[in-house]
Amino acid sequence: MKGTNPADGPGPIPLARVMSELVQRRGWNQQQGDRVLMDAWKGSTEERIFSQTKIGALRNGVLTIHVSNSPLLSELVSFHKVSLLLTIKQKLPQTRLKELRFRLDSSIQKRD
Predict the structure, then answer these.
(1) Cα separation of 32 and 88, whole Å?
(2) pTM for the complete prediction?
(3) H or E element: which one contains 64?
(4) Can you tell me the distance from the alpha carbon of 103 to that of 112, in angstroms, rounded to the nearest whole number?
(5) What is the DSSP string of 67-110?
(6) Band of the pLDDT at 28, cuts 50, 70, 90?
(7) What span, in angstroms and rounded, lies between the C-alpha atoms of 30 and 99?
């Protein structure tokens, strides 16, 4: 952190700045954001869908959802994509979500 050495500047560093840098360096904001996205996804889907999917990254308004199998992937893309997008956007208007992208990920184990 710049300014932590007394020789670097005049006086102490504000606690708010120190805490902000600590949260950023530890990635705590990202962890909290991931949890909020996961909760919104869970609340927007049926249990059978949620149990076979996993939230991926949210980048530039595109949320990636990893899907355990091809039939479910096709179902989500063909029949549920628009309604899921609208539901999540309503739950999380601050995310500026523009699109859902589904990816096949056979490593996902079905949750009970």
Answers:
(1) 17
(2) 0.70
(3) strand 62-67
(4) 21
(5) ESSHHHHHHIIIIIHHHHHHHHHHH-GGG---EEEEEE-TTPPP
(6) very low
(7) 20
Six token digits for residue 77? 């893309």
Contact 60, 96 (CB under 8 A): no
Domain covering 15-104 in this structure, CATH number: 3.30.300.180
Q: Which amino acid is at 47?
A: E
Q: Which two tokens stand for residue 68?
A: 């355990």
pLDDT for 95 equals 84
Scanning the structure block, which residue is given the tokens 């990202």?
30
Two structure tokens written together for 62: 């595109």
Q: Where are the domains of the chain?
A: 15-104
